């Protein structure tokens, strides 16, 4: 089992707990009912419905384990963090040759790059951590490297 800390906001932790509750109390019993119904149809060796239900059961059980691990190893992101330097939970406005962009640094479990939420483990997130407003940060990504200037931290 993975014991790596997972940085989460209160909202993110709440969403994971809700998903876990849904998986344990609803999805698990739905899949069990599907397996039971599929068994009623006889020969299991050629029963695609049974095979599909068993695959879904494996997915649900795996997801339950993942969620339990994330919640067990959760470290809440401090909502009242410093605006002096970039840290997990910071919203950072950066400027590059392509213009201004805004990122919120979150844990990998909550990362949603399309929504501007980047992981502290991503190349950009890792490069920004610890820097102050006005500093220039060089970021290396698979597509090459570029420079950001930190315009604001909140």
What report would you give on this structure?
It is a single chain. With 154 residues, the chain is an alpha/beta fold. It folds into two domains: 6-76, Helix Hairpins (Orthogonal Bundle); 91-153, Chitinase A, domain 3 (Roll), CATH 3.10.50. Helices cover 40% and strands 25% of the residues. It is built from three helices and seven strands; from the N terminus they run E-H-H-E-E-E-E-H-E-E. The strands form two sheets. The chain has a five-stranded mixed β-sheet with strand order 5-4-3-7-6. A two-stranded parallel ribbon has the order 1-2. Helix 1 runs antiparallel to helix 2. The model has no long low-confidence stretch (mean pLDDT 89).
Low-confidence stretches: none
Main sheet overview: 5 strands, mixed
What is the CATH top level name of the largest domain? Answer: Mainly Alpha
CATH architecture heading of the largest domain: Orthogonal Bundle
CATH topology of the largest domain: Helix Hairpins
């Amino acid at each position: 089992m993975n014991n790596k800390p997972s940085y989460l906001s209160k909202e993110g932790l709440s969403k994971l707990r809700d998903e876990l509750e849904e998986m344990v109390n609803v999805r698990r019993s739905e899949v069990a009912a599907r397996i039971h119904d599929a068994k009623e149809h006889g020969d299991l060796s050629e029963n695609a419905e049974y095979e599909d239900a068993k695959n879904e059961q494996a997915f649900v059980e795996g997801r339950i384990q993942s969620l339990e691990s994330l919640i067990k190893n959760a470290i809440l992101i401090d909502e009242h963090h410093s605006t002096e330097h970039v840290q997990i939970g910071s919203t950072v406005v950066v400027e590059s040759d392509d213009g201004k962009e805004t990122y919120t640094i979150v844990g990998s479990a909550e990362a949603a790059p399309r929504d501007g939420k980047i992981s502290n483990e991503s190349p950009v997130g890792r490069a920004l951590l610890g820097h102050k407003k006005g500093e220039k940060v060089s970021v290396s990504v698979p597509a090459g490297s570029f420079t950001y200037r930190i315009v604001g931290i909140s």
